[in-house]
Structure formats: structure tokens, C-alpha cells
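> forwarded from #structure-qc
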């Protein structure tokens, strides 16, 4: 299996306080990793390090040469009154690769149409982005991350501001994308993503990797896994493979 990202014994912190310690993680082609853990546990910091926005105190982050990473951040600060169409938002994803020309070519529009079809938003191509619902807008932003044909797609809490019905559709879309693209999906709630992901990385200062999407009571009792800190609603509890819904 081709390695896209290889994190080796990584440590990082802010000021003198460590946030991540002894992190080891390999992301390979066609992986679908669910990264879970409590708020403040270091998930978003680890993503920023993978993206090259932060440099670790120690350890290594090795990226395969010419890797293309698509990124969907957790929050979108977006003025819905800004006059830009759905198609134009998706095309803006080519800017980072330098593939978007000053005069948009027919090949670029065809690529945007293909991506919008993939995320179920092709009929809305000419619609103003401000006219969309939260779930529709999230699909468009995923399309923007996909248009550059990334090797790895990183999604930070993609179900934020999305209703329950669309949330299920969103994870089904992720499974389709994973047929050609590796995915690192960050979530605070493992219960919502277990049916889609292939493996689990639990992050709470340290990282514990589970090579499948099943968590047993024996695994949880064997070490201080941060999955214990995941919550549903207002009641903290463990989420096990046989957890009743």
C-alpha cells in the first residue's frame, strides 16, 4: 500500500505546554481514517501540522512527493451576500494548484460539472452560493476540495451545521469519494462515523490507532484510550462495537 503521509514520533505544543506527544500515524492510499477525540485533544493541531501550517517540535512528517491534499475546514466564514455562483466556488479550488486560468476554459468548466455531479449539486451550478442551505453549501465546499484531484482529503468536522438527514447523505458521499481518494475525517463523535470509516485514530495528546472500525471493551480497558471522552448529547459514555442505538 502506497504511503501518502508518514508521521514519526511527533511532538508539538504551544509555548512550553505540549499538545501532542509521541504521535505515530501512517496514511496510505484509499485509507478512510476517522480521527476522534475530545475538544482540545490536539486533532486540529495535528491536521495543521500535516498541512504544513505548523512545524513540530520534534519528530517527522514525511509526505509522498507531489502529494495533493484537499482540505475542508471545520468552520466557513462566508458572506452569503457575496455574488459568486456555486460553479465559481468549486472552480476556486483550482487556484492553489495554479490550474485556474484568468479566462475559464471549457475543460475547467467540464471538470467543475463532473465534481458537482459527484457531490449531487450539478443542477445548482449557476445558483448563487448564498441561496443554498447549510447541507448544500457543505457539498459545494467538498466539491471545491475535490476539483484538484487530491490524493488525500482532510475533513474537519464536516457535519457541523448539517441536519441529521443530510448528515447520513454526507457520510454516504464520503464512502463514494473514498473509492478513489484517501480520507482523514475528524470528528468528536465516533458513533456517527463508525459505519463509514475503515480505521480509527483516537487523539488526546497521544494517539492510539485501531486498525479497523470496531472498538471492544477489551481494547478500551487495555489503555487510557481517549474514546472514553466522546459524548452523545449531554451524557458522556463509552461507545462500543455492540453499543445499542
Amino acid at each position: 500500500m502506497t504511503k501518502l503521509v508518514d508521521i514519526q514520533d511527533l511532538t508539538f505544543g504551544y509555548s512550553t505546554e505540549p499538545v501532542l506527544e509521541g504521535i505515530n500515524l501512517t496514511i496510505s492510499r484509499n485509507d478512510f481514517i476517522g480521527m476522534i477525540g475530545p475538544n482540545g485533544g490536539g486533532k486540529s493541531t495535528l491536521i495543521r501540522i500535516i498541512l504544513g501550517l505548523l512545524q513540530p517540535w520534534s519528530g517527522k512528517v514525511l509526505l509522498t512527493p507531489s502529494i495533493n491534499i484537499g482540505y475542508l475546514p471545520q468552520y466557513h466564514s462566508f458572506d452569503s451576500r457575496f455574488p459568486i455562483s456555486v460553479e465559481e466556488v468549486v472552480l476556486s479550488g483550482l487556484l492553489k494548484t495554479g490550474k485556474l486560468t484568468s479566462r475559464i476554459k471549457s475543460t475547467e468548466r467540464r471538470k467543475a460539472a463532473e465534481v458537482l455531479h459527484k457531490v449531487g449539486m450539478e443542477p445548482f451550478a449557476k445558483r448563487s452560493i448564498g441561496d443554498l442551505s447549510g447541507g448544500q453549501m457543505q457539498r459545494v465546499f467538498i466539491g471545491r476540495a475535490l476539483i484538484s484531484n487530491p490524493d488525500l482529503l482532510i475533513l474537519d468536522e464536516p457535519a457541523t451545521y448539517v441536519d441529521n438527514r443530510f448528515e447520513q447523505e454526507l457520510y454516504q458521499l464520503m464512502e463514494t469519494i473514498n473509492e478513489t481518494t484517501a480520507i482523514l475525517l475528524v470528528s468528536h463523535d465516533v458513533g456517527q462515523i463508525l459505519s463509514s470509516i475503515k480505521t480509527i485514530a483516537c487523539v488526546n495528546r497521544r494517539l492510539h490507532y485501531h486498525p479497523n472500525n470496531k472498538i471492544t471493551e477489551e481494547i478500551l480497558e487495555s489503555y487510557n484510550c481517549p474514546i472514553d471522552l466522546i459524548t452523545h448529547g449531554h451524557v458522556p459514555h463509552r461507545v462500543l462495537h455492540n453499543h445499542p442505538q
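QC bot note: The first strand starts at residue 3 and ends at 14. The chain has six helices and eleven strands.
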